[in-house]
Amino acid sequence: MPFHVIEPLRQQESLHHRKGLFAPSLRPTGLPTEPIRRALVFGGVAAGLMAYILWGSFVDRSFELEDIYLIPLVFVAITLLTAAVTLVGPFLQALRVELALDEAGLRCVASGLVTYYPWMLLGPAQIEPDWRGIPTLTLTNASGRAFMRVPLFGKRVHASAVALLRSYELRRAGPILPAPPIARTLARQGRPMAAWLEALAALAAAGNKRAGYREQAPLELGELPSIVADLGQTPEHRAAAAYVLLAQRAPDLDVVKDAVTAAAPPLVQLLVHLSPAGKAIVSRESIEDVRPFLEPDEAAAIDGAA
């Protein structure tokens, strides 16, 4: 299952934190797979029967007089074995994949490797049968090249994939809004994590000041709540706006709490957690769930704040 968009950063077993995600998460084999188990059992029995027949016909020679009756059995055994082999590959492939959407991209766990795909790097997706006739969710990158195919087993799994695909296309086609005037001040601009947080704290302190007579008015921060809640803004701007709001003298927790849920991008959740009043909104347990989707220096900030 090749990845052509970005390389996985690290490993994690599963997407534990799914509550409140922007769209239903998809685990293709998260539902009962009795038909698959039955096919595997029949395939195993068929393989054993075929081996027994071949041994008796060509090695032991004990079935020479009954060969004419064994032909249908051999045909059935080969048919069942072929069906089982055809299903085993897609089933194991689906077993190792889990997908979930958030407000800024696609979270993926495949064979234990955690990957995050921002919307700007994602292309169209579709559900169509593969050459075996198995419904398959195909994801493409911005250039239209397929980088993941997820087999879907069962009606309920297929329905979950349809719901995810619908939300995927709606969110991917969402408007990209122009950056607000304050964006240049909020942006990280390549600074180390500690320097960025220090600059944001200074911005919050400046916003707390009151302009005196003939003094320059403090930086206007009134648009920060709308930036935090606006899905059309970049995760970096939303994260910085949330941090500044929570670092102010009298933080409005409700504004950030309503906008920052488990569906928020990992970077937004991180800066809320690192802010002076943010641990009441994004707990340590919640931030640990999105740690694998953060850059190394961002993840290190979690331990530094502990």
TrEMBL record:
Keyword Transmembrane: yes
Keywords for this protein: Membrane, Transmembrane, Transmembrane helix
Organism domain of life: Bacteria
Positions of transmembrane segments: 39-58, 70-92
Protein name: Uncharacterized protein
Organism classification: Bacteria, Pseudomonadati, Myxococcota, Polyangia, Polyangiales
